[in-house]
């Protein structure tokens, strides 16, 4: 349901992409009632993209997300989501590690010796010193008002539980031959998503009233 796009100008290894996708999926699905199967993460190599920041030609690493919003989602909730994602980026895509060694070189002239000193820098890690590995922005766009995904219409914010109940028989039928749906059915049962497990009384009341407690 949510769609996260990671626009990166620094190279990301397959392992880093896997870790970022898993982390974002975990953060979103556990903060709300969205099954992991419906959390989408897309990577876009933006190295050759022309972008401007402050009217000047600049590049950066960005994460953009289209999510469903509801009245019960506060600014604090979204700030917390962003902070967790930024924390995972900083853990998975570290800045270059640099180790310096001091060495001397000698130049000999006519009866005179000059000794020059220079720094040799050896990079250790997965990046070059001129690559920008900082995450410039994590922007959440609340413009996801509907859609179709994996054979089903996307429910409105706050309607996940009823949506799962309405489609449960079809989910289980698909799970017999589709690994994605099997994983989803197992997750929903394990987390107790259809019976409101892990929710406060306030959250259950808001969901019963059709307010947007899920994103």
UniProtKB/TrEMBL annotation:
Organism superkingdom: Eukaryota
Domain Tautomerase cis-CaaD-like: 1-91
Region annotated Disordered, chain positions: 192-215
InterPro entries: Cis-CaaD-like (IPR028116), Tautomerase/MIF_sf (IPR014347)
Protein name, per record: Tautomerase cis-CaaD-like domain-containing protein
Natural source organism: Dothistroma septosporum (strain NZE10 / CBS 128990)
């Amino acid at each position: 349901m949510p769609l996260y796009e990671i626009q990166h100008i620094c190279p990301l290894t397959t392992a880093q992409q896997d870790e970022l996708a898993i982390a974002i999926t975990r953060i979103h699905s556990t903060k709300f009632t969205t099954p992991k199967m419906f959390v989408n993460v897309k990577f876009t190599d933006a190295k050759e993209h022309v972008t401007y920041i402050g009217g000047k030609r600049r590049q950066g690493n960005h994460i953009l997300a289209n999510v469903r919003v509801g009245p019960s989602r506060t600014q604090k909730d979204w700030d917390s989501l962003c902070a967790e994602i930024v924390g995972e980026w900083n853990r998975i895509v570290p800045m270059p590690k640099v180790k310096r060694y001091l060495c001397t070189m000698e130049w000999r002239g006519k009866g005179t010796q000059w000794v020059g000193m220079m720094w040799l820098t050896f990079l250790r890690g997965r990046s070059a010193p001129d690559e920008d590995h900082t995450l410039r922005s994590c922007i959440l766009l609340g413009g996801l008002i509907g859609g179709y995904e994996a054979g089903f219409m996307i429910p409105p914010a706050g309607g996940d539980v009823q949506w799962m109940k309405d489609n449960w028989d079809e989910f289980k039928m698909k799970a017999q031959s589709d690994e994605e749906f099997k994983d989803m059915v197992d997750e929903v049962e394990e987390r107790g998503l259809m019976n409101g497990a892990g929710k406060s009384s306030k959250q259950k009341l808001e969901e019963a009233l059709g307010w947007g407690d899920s994103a």
